[in-house]
Design goal:
Layout (H helix, E strand, L loop, with lengths): L12 H13 L2 H7 L4 H15 L4 E4 L2 E4 L1 H28 L3 E8 L1 H6 L1 H11 L2 E8 L2 H10 L4 E5 L7 E16 L9 E2 L9 E4 L4 H13 L5 E5 L2 H9 L5 E4 H4 L3 H4 L1 E6 L5 E9 L6 H11 L9
Parallel strand pairs: 3-4, 3-5, 7-11, 8-9
Antiparallel strand pairs: 1-2, 5-12, 6-10, 6-11, 6-12
Helix pairs in contact: 1-2, 1-3, 1-4, 2-3
Amino acid sequence: MSKDLINPARIDFVTLRLFCAVAQTGSITKGAERCSLALSAASRRISEFEVASKAVLMERTAHGIQLTPAGHVALQHAMRLFQGFELFSNELSEYSNGSRGHVRLWANMSALVEFLPSALESFLHLYPDTRVEVEEQLSGDIVRALVEGVADVGIFVEGAPPHGLNILPYRKDRLVVLCSKTHPLSKADEIDFRSCLSYDFVGLNRGSSLLNTISSAAHEIGFPLRLRVQVRSFDAMSEMIASNLGIGVLPLGACFRKLEPLGLKAVRLLDSWAVRKLLIATSANRPLSSSASLLVEHLSKDTESEPLD
């Protein structure tokens, strides 16, 4: 059985607002004034609203406008619609000013382990309704993701090709040689990389910027890199090194807390490349969302490096 329904195309928010104003003031004249409408236009809208509703919603009396039972029902629904519309407007406003939203952040392992936990904690404290989707990726993959629009914000080590990107400085980290306290190198407090190349190494998997760095340094010196074990994380590197499977090159901040528990020694590298710059990058060809802009602004203020000595 078909039912006669109100055609929503014949009712707009201006008319609903006017209907609520007339109901609240008890006067079409006052309702029209509240809505900044001419009296004739307001009267026509109210009449058309009643026709569309297929019900008498208002009674004209000597004391003004009074709602019929159907009018009270219409008023309740109109108020709910306006409350929903106000919530809709407020939430969109939150997205537009960045206080609510979604950001895709890709970062290399060094940034993710050393700096981002505290930076994201403070950011999400300021903007608790923003969701930051974090992925650990290799520096080259981060650049491609930014260019292709897969990521919104990236953090990687200086040296990756920055074409098509907007770049800001972020932090610095110091690379150290990590060894067990029983290893011959543990007697030194600082060392050059050349002196390390006679020992076996534990390294990250192929493609990491850190492995590329030490491989290039060994190649320039003219010594082979004796890579005995390759793993996927700094934690795994530390465990392998603690088991005397080799030495490794890691950021100091990534292994500092593991020195005592695992019986490790961090030996300062004297080579200039051992101090690395991390960069914040975004696409130069795609506008940032408000949430992503707020995150970049927050990270760019967090640029003090960890103590390098």
